[in-house]
Amino acid sequence: MTSKEDMRRMLRQRGTTGTSAEASSIIDQLRNHPRVMLSHTLLIYYSMPDEVPTQGLLDELVNKGKTVLLPRVISDTEMEVRRYTGKEDLRKGAFGIMEPTGTLFTDYERIDVAIVPGVAFDRDGHRLGRGKGYYDRFLSKVPLVYKIGVCFPSRLMDEVPADEYDILMDEIITANAQ
Fold this sequence. Notes:
Elements: H1 4-14, H2 20-31, H3 34-38, E1 41-43, H4 55-63, E2 67-73, E3 79-84, E4 90-92, E5 98-100, E6 104-105, E7 113-116, E8 120-122, E9 127-128, H5 134-139, E10 146-150, E11 156-157, E12 171-173
Parallel strand pairs: 1-2, 1-7, 7-10, 8-11, 10-12
Antiparallel strand pairs: 2-3, 3-6, 4-5, 8-9
């Protein structure tokens, strides 16, 4: 099997990840997902250029009265989550990622759903991240949260290399998934 770093390198060389039609399909599936619709508190991400774009969905969820949380890198190994109420809550943080400046959120058991990005996923729920382990460490603290991995179809692999500490997703959403 390919190593994690080899798979990351291969996907970087491949270039672009998805079309705007694929992005719209994925966001529509999230918007209409029963767990997202019924949730009160969601952990989601502010997308980087090679990820499914979530910026519009963030504001929609806030406007529906949901508590929206975004990750913020605080060390070489840890991330925290902060409340997002609008674009004014963002500033450029670690790795050039837009990060929240809102209120620190520590009531982890209140998080209903985590919508998680990845470099790649497989249908068994394995996630290939960027290699720092931030999400795996954080998600290990909230074992009961429902985890939805999102990716473009070109990033859904037959098999993703996994280690024992990698946290499995409960579901993977991509465009045209049935």
